[in-house]
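#struct-pred
JK: can someone run the complex with zinc ion? inputs below
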Amino acid sequence: MSAPLPLVQTRTIGKLTVHAIQSGGQKLDGGAMFGVVPKPLWERRIPADDRNRIQLGMRCLLIEHPSGLVLVDTGAGNKEDDKFKQIYGLDNEGADGRTCLEDGLRAVGARPEDVAIVINTHLHFDHAGGNTWRDEAGTIKPSFPNARYFVKRGEYDYATHPNERTGASYFPRNFMPVVAEGMFEFVSREREIVKGIRVIPTPGHTPFHESVLIESGGERAFFLADMLPTHAHLPLPWIMGYDVEPLVTLETKRRILRRAEDEHWLLIFEHDATVPWGYVEHDGKSYRLIND
Ligand SMILES: [Zn+2]
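RT: done, structure tokens with the ligand placed:
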């Protein structure tokens, strides 16, 4: 196994400095990642291994905001066993028993204690697993002890009432210790969390999935999360089989990509193993990535 590199990529959005931190690697079934798209089409974009899995990343975004460090999503955490890691091709081990996310924080001079705000786009294990960590004594506790954690109320309700289809991605150990400490704030609709950082509903992957719009100095960036996990998912019908409401994803993509092109948003791809971000244009047939 090998986690995608580089660990950290840094740029500015207006007056804000942001760091895309690759919190580890993950390998998922290519067919499941591309839904109804036939393999001969998707494997031209991302090749499959001998178990039909494609290499993915788990990119988190750290924003240096005047009010404190804001972290969007937290990767898969350090609590899973070897069998689970084998199944999902998880490769995210960092120094001191923690994960590549903490390594990335250290690389930019930050500690977990310095994070002021954590935003969870949703509570699946590969996005919220790093909300908590297991210490040397085996105790599970919040990874960012001084942070306020934000998530959609509907997503929390959905995660805590799973069914046979949705339960495999939601582990209470990733969010209940945060609830127990009273550190979660529940959001019910679009909301500016701190100046210039806004959560926007992007339903489809889960009914209450949200993405994050960052605005500063006339520039805009959009952290897509699982609304559009890699740059290969830009064409409207290239939608994950994992999505619980794929036709809702389709309309979310149509709406968001139109705005992204019109308003020149930098799109940030959470699961892309190689491409962290880019702008989009519609070439008359489909959306495609253009460089900045
Ligand atoms: Zn995901």
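RT: quick notes.
The first strand starts at residue 8 and ends at 13.
The CA atoms of residues 69 and 114 lie 7 Å apart.
JK: thanks, will look after standup
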